[in-house]
């Protein structure tokens, strides 16, 4: 038998979450954001789950876009960072991709390169995130220039919010709408804005994390309360147990010290599988379907679960690290990170299986 860790991906849950996102923005089309190999879930697997209902897909890698086109997906596919050189621009045109235009260098390439057919583009304005985008106030001049280029079939105005999951969007929204010509298509909403700020929905929303069953603001709103279902369940088994007496320590650095006799289970999952090494003692973990906690430092291939209330647990007992029965948000919060990072960090060595198989 091989090492017992695996990631189970539930396509039906992904589909449910996408349809929920669409229901929360009923006037808009929804880019199904599948960048970073669908946040670690597998781009083709996720796309297949929504093949007949997806309005479009958004990602960064030409290679991932090619995978979708070769698999027969005919929906619009948006390159969220656009193209990086003329070759990329031509390949985007060949694959009939939509491109984000966020920088002067891209406009120059677009203007200078003959294309087989006009492209659809999102013109990205920087309204305060200060990552990608033209200064918002340049919008009128840019629109004139793009129209004059003759290279675009359609232009959507776009921005990205820095605090849709927290303080809010007021300043950025004001700066954006000041530039938005009446009737022009626009796209602004990540998952958090989709759920909290319906005025930002526009023509295309851009849900990502919610499609994978993560809450964009877990401190305020659990994934379950939004109606989202977990898509990835990272599961493994206990491969050894130890019985400690008071004063015994666990793992590297002896970070955990038992203050009474206790039993612990060694779980085949470590940071080389993508489990966060900085998850402290006390991070939630499910053993045999029951909530318990980790103890000691996460090592490369193993972590340790407290078996205090689990006398039946022994070698072979199933463990869920996150997913079905244990929200990834709870593990992420304990580890001081976000579910996005847990999902994306799933290591290539972890076998992935589809739920129901
Ligand atoms: C990743 C990304 C999204 C999706 O964000 P979530 O917080 O995962 O919903 C939306 N828009 C852009 C530009 C992105 O890069």
TrEMBL record:
Sites bearing N6-(pyridoxal phosphate)lysine, chain numbering = 35
Active-site residues (renumbered): 35, 252
Output the SMART domains linked to this UniProt entry.
Answer: Ala_racemase_C (SM01005)
Tell me the pathway.
Amino-acid biosynthesis; D-alanine biosynthesis; D-alanine from L-alanine: step 1/1
What's the top EC group for this one? isomerase
Residues annotated to bind substrate: 131, 300
Which terms are listed as keywords in the entry?
Isomerase, Pyridoxal phosphate
Q: Which cofactor does it need?
A: pyridoxal 5'-phosphate
Q: Where is the Alanine racemase C-terminal domain?
A: 231-355
* Catalysed reactions listed for this entry: L-alanine = D-alanine
The keyword DNA-binding is assigned to this record = no
Stated EC number for the protein is: 5.1.1.1
Please provide an example of a Pfam family that matches this protein in its UniProt record. Ala_racemase_N
Matching PANTHER family? ALANINE RACEMASE, ALANINE RACEMASE, CATABOLIC-RELATED
> What is this protein's function per UniProt?
Catalyzes the interconversion of L-alanine and D-alanine. May also act on other amino acids.
The similarity annotation says: Belongs to the alanine racemase family.
Q: What is this protein called?
A: Alanine racemase
**Organism of origin:** Viridibacterium curvum
Q: Which gene encodes it?
A: alr
